[in-house]
Hints:
By secondary structure, the chain is mostly helical. The chain contains seven helices and three strands; from the N terminus they run H-H-H-E-H-H-E-E-H-H. Pfam families: KH_NucS_shadow.
Amino acid sequence: MSLDVSPDLLDSAARGEVTDAEFVDCVRTSLPYAWTVISSVVADLELSDGELADHEVPPPSEAERGQLLRALASDAIRGGLERHFGVRLAFQNCHRVAAFRPEAVGGVTYREFTSPRGQLLNQSPELRDC
């Protein structure tokens, strides 16, 4: 299961009345490691003048790795996080998370990070089975 959904939130969803804030709060509490990584990348981006900030530290366990995968592989979760933080998220391997300023999307840095070449250059034997 990707998210721990409270009965109240589940009832709201059944009625079609879920706000982004409610959804993002559910993500925050259900995937705390992923939330921490993404929050820190966004904070780093806000403190810099660059187009992106990224996190390359492998998660401490498979449980945390699973949180990142669930957060970034789900269109709904990723989209909710992007709207909440006002960034575009990108993901390589099983742990490299980047946040881009919206105006950087489509630019050289973004295209390089999200390209097949960028993915290939970010490979190493120790990440083979991550």
